[in-house]
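Hi R.,

Here are the chain sequences for the assembly we discussed:
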Amino acid sequence: MTPVSPEEVSSVLGERAVEMTEAHGWTVCRVEADQWYGCLADLNRSLEMDYLACLTAVDRLDEQRMELAAHLMSLKRGTRLAVKCFLPREGACVRSVRDIWAAADWLERETHEMFGIGFERHPDLSNLLLPDGWEGHPLRKDYVEPD
Amino acid sequence: MSSQIKTQELEVNMGPQHPSTHGVLRVIIKLDGEVVREATPVIGYLHRGMEKTAEKRTYFQFMPLTDRFDYLASMMNSALYCQTLEKLCGMEVSRRAEYIRVIMMELNRISSHLVFVGTFGLDLGATTPFIYCFREREAILDLFEEAAGARMTFNYMRPGGVAQDLPAGFDRKCREFLKKLPALLREYDDLLSDNRIFRERTRGVGVLEAAEAVNWGASGPVLRASGVAYDVRKADPYSVYAEFEFDAVVRTEGDCLARYLCRTEEMRQSIRIIEQALDGLPEGPVSAKINMNLKAPAGEAYHHIESARGDMGCYIVSDGSMKPVRLKWRAPSFANLSIISRLIPGWKVADAVAIIGSVDIVLGEVDR
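And here is the predicted structure of the full complex:
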């Protein structure tokens, strides 16, 4: 398995690839949040990114933002690519990729309950790991544990 | 006559405390007679906030907890965590240590698959294989105990190597066990895969198509039983796996029986790997001197391995301090379990039990 080259990513995303870095064998491409769905759909179509291995968020409290990260693979081509976008810490929302990868169903539900990030058009964003009615989003850095 | 009988949809809870759910899984099933119309897995009963805990512990302090994700294959969890850290920190690992890791991980794959074979038989009403499988698993746990001092959660892998070298006599005992295992596995085949009831209850049941399996993020035997030849050991070789000869077991049927047969064959492949690793075990150190207050350089690393259940990934984001900003565990059971909502509808209740069993979940890694 090899990382998708930055050139290949550029050929599909063009200007939409805002930033490209390398992280230990992964090409990491950053896109704008409002283009999250479109970019992932295009990567899925054009680069045969058929496998959503992981989708999660990172709370960067010191930089006042959330980062959403998706680790994609193409089992067909034997390639891998990470895609990121920056989101505001409050009221963050992107369009769900559930209709591209069924794997996103639970991954987005978990990211929603743990970070408070919304996923538009997701069929069911009820709590997955947390009990119903749990207050707060535990993986946020400013989360306060209940007594 | 039968058209005049009015039936009513019935909602039934399977679990969270039910032997067929392998831990604390709850499945809400909607029944029409004996046919399941809808199955909704409800998880989180074993959620321990492990990813949050990781952010509040140093890299070393978190080490023992990694064993508790998939507690049936602990060696693989801690190896994944160590290898991700090693990637992030650019640490070198001696070849001897990597060989020992492979031996431990493959032994763990066998012991985990033995639990699967035993409990799967139990799910379908065959109690004898369960006792046999646990007897053989016990022999592996004994080997682990000698090497690591523990039987279940070993804390044996360390960043930079393993905790200590193999004890005296390990090589001999391990080889003796591997020598008698193939005959025992054949015996279990007689008890299960050659058993007509077992075959009838698993063949053609809960078929998962290849494209669907990929789309749902399935991995491990669940994916390979559907005809997709994706085994991380082959597709994205890590550690020293590229040096060994073995086959990624693939079947095309996609049913419960295929998932079962994938695992039994995988045990035979693991035997091949361990024997090669014992034969070629290099000399040298098994651990490196690492500062207990290890600081990972700012950045991120995503690493994945083939655990007993599939593609297990670890994503660590560091800001250069002693604790990770974020640690995400990509558990193969998590994705594999989500598929049962799609697999079970249309089958009878008894088949639902077979389907859940064939997925081989460990709730420890699903709920984290």
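Chain A has three helices and eight strands. Helices of chain A lie at 6-13, 36-46, 104-115.

Let me know if anything looks off.

Best,
T.
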